[in-house]
Model the fold of this input.
Amino acid sequence: MENNDYMIWERLLFVDNDLQDWKALYEHSSSAIELFPNQPSVYLLKSVAGIQLEKYDESIAIVDEGIDFVVDNPELKGQFLMLKGEALYKQNKLDEAFKFFDKSVQLSPENYVGLNNYAYYLSLVGRDLDKAERMSGKVIERFPENATYLDTYAWILFKKGNYTLAKFYMETAIKNGGEDNAVMYEHYGDILFMLNKLEEAKQYWEKAKNSGSTSEVLLRKIREQKYIEE
Done:
């Protein structure tokens, strides 16, 4: 009824985002861009939806278009660059992705979701683990009971070989909402294996499988009874 009211559109997009209804967010943000082509937040949310829908090239193009409308807002610009890095990472363009992540962190140092994701991606490829630990540490200092962030910090410690401390943080992650989380169970099993607790490790790998993981690497860990790096 009031399709020229930007605030109503913005609320609708945030509802789509909160519900993680990526198809609706993509469609609604596309319509909103036609009505409000100078509003950067609309482009930002469309790029979020595009990444979730694996439209990576399109998401990069949307970021490049929308960032031109950002004026005197380094934090918002940083969020755009983080999303561009995310799309590049999903395309396995790691060097380019990490450059954009670095620029994003400089512009938007309080973007905790971005900091966590960047730190986790570094841990997955084993790069700059000290930097990853600093970024992840900043995040859990702000959100000490967030299971996802605790999992990231524990996994970085694991990759650095600090298995005892990794065990503590992974246990904390599981206690704070990580129950029945297949990834966390698998990570905890990996940590236990490195601490020479094979029987316990096998139990948690099985829990990961029973929680819905179909990872071939996980199945190999269970079959071969050893840690296998992905």
